[in-house]
Amino acid sequence: MKHLKEIGISVIAGLVVECLSRLLFNKSLLSIQVPLWCWLVISIGIIFLYCIIHHLIQQHRIKEIVNEFTECTFGDSYVYTWDYKRTKHGRYSAFGYEATNVRTKKPLAEMNNERVHTCGHEVPEETVKLFIQLILIASVEKKKGKQLMPVLEYLHWTEDSQKHQLLH
Length: 168
Hints:
mainly alpha; about 55% helix
């Protein structure tokens, strides 16, 4: 299905170029005697260029999300922070990045001082990494994001102890 979209864009781009050439030069590009293999090479080049540009845009978007998304809370848990490591074969890897060094934003001893009661609970590191992986996938790929939203909402609900008593 993805390739049909690229072919459609190429055909539309060809029609636009044809219309512009008629307007600007009063001559059709199709009347120029060019071998069929040249048109084929040009069409494949346009499709290849589109794929490269699409890939570069997606890599830029992934890098922006990875740079910004470094802390979060899950349900009513403590605030967690993490770093990313480039890896393609990690268990919780998404788009070549895996969350590492997962920790609470403040140490528990610092959060639980004698004057302020800290509300929240700890979440296992594997669960936090799964959350991060799913949120990263949902943020980058919009179609999968629509499918993953109910799953993420349910996972946040399971971590919210004020709504129920299901905790680890």
